[in-house]
Amino acid sequence: MRRICPVKRSVRFPASTTLLRRLALASIIANVAIVVTGGAVRLTASGLGCPTWPRCTDASYTTTSEMGVHGVIEFGNRLLTFAVGAIALAVVVGLLLHGARRRALLPLAIGVLFGIPAQAVVGGITVLTNLNPWVVGLHFLASMAVIAVAYALWRRIGEPDGPTAPTVPGPLRTLALVTTVVSVAVLVVGTWVTGSGPHAGDQGAARNGLDPQSISQVHADGVFLLIGLSVALVFAFRAVGARRAERAALVLVAVELSQGLIGFVQYFTHLPAAMVAAHMLGSCLVLLATLAVLWSTRERRPTEVPTTPTPAKTPAPTPA
Hints:
8 helices
């Protein structure tokens, strides 16, 4: 008697929403980490530990013993890019395995995935330009852009696919947008302050020529404006009963005050490396807290599935 083998069905391994959110959160953390480690490269004067790019030396893609600890630090930071990229790729694959419903988020996931090598290219240009301070600042801002997209992806994964609706009145949403713009402006000016300071990343790297005291004052003025706007958001959200938005604004104020304290301490203690590294981490947290406030001013509701009314049954004719 011939044995009949069962037909093998194709097995799918759908990624759960929980797994996707965890991967997206890991992507945010990894991108923040590479900002901090990139700062460590500059703060240890290892910016030219690998003097060229994409190779580490003209003859090798990896560091050599002759390059010492600076070469190890710079090459190690370059290797982290592959780890961050692997996490971003895992998010893309997870979305594809999740099915058609989550594939609408692929543009955000692909934006993060391709933003990482783009950021690495900018980092390579910083090396090729001998750590030009304007390019170094652009490198930092490119990382912040990737973090912003990664945050948007993380939030969208946890939301339904329906249309968005505001949770606060229009003027308050506008105020939140203005606060976001000011927050970004503070980050940009912060890179100018860094470019005028002593941590060039290498002994021979140039500075941007701005007066450190003057540009630091401009940066501080922007921080005061940002804190004022954030406090206004707290009271405005409270007045309209937007509790979720109010909590997000309170977190933003707390992060800003902590970041401002670190900034003042590092300025008056002549920019010790540890405080500068903490300030770079704080910059990432300010951006994330700002985005959280902006996100709290709207919500996405599930798509309503139209129901087809059941036709009424025609009563059977009564026999005569």
